[in-house]
TrEMBL record:
<feature type="compositionally biased region" description="Pro residues">
    <location>
        <begin position="52"/>
        <end position="68"/>
    </location>
</feature>
<feature type="region of interest" description="Disordered">
    <location>
        <begin position="26"/>
        <end position="71"/>
    </location>
</feature>
<feature type="signal peptide">
    <location>
        <begin position="1"/>
        <end position="22"/>
    </location>
</feature>
<protein>
    <recommendedName>
        <fullName>Secreted protein</fullName>
    </recommendedName>
</protein>
<keyword id="KW-0732">Signal</keyword>
Amino acid sequence: MKARSAIACALAAWLAGCQVVAPLPGEGGEGTLATDGGSVETDAGDAGQDSQPPPAATPPPPTPPPPQQQIGPCEIAECSTHCVASMDRCELAPQYPSVEACCTVCEAMPSPAGYAACRPVETGDPAGCTDAGPLGPDGADGCAGRCEALCTLYAALCPLRVPDLETCTVMCSVWPAPDAFNACSRLRAEGTLDCRMQQIFAALDEDLDEKKRDELCRDIVQGRCRDPQCEDGDDDD
């Protein structure tokens, strides 16, 4: 009876397209699984022991954060606030030849946020704008003073002309400071901070070659004045 049952099961499996040879009586739990591509030996005693769960799906890579959006014309928000206010309110006495120059000056400071905080643009008159410009504060109350601002820029532009920031600051302390500064005016008084700051603005031009920049660095130390080039291309006499 058992043999007939095994034959009947095998026939049913063959009709279904997969032939299974059941173990004959007395042959234990071993048998042969026959498929269209061949046969595989099986062991009923080991059934389920060698089976492994499917590998876990690999999680997708994390989505990168969106790039930080630039706020205003500068890369630093505090500098943007300062530069926009300065360019808008100080049309009669601009403290920077362009908003790009303002951003460069502000962002070059050891503390850009501190530079901007010490120079709030509260009024548009020449004296008020000068107080809110690079040559305004004298360095009191922890603010970056005019000499620190000028020498930070000079040391970055002209590293071979002045040995260090401290030497430049000592030299700067004896240069006459203006009551009102205009970055776009044609200055005649050489040797002043006015002329030197205008020369620094000129040296910020990225298109200058090394020789031209070195000439400007020399003129900054000597306090020579040249006609400034401002954003609108018009200079005030």
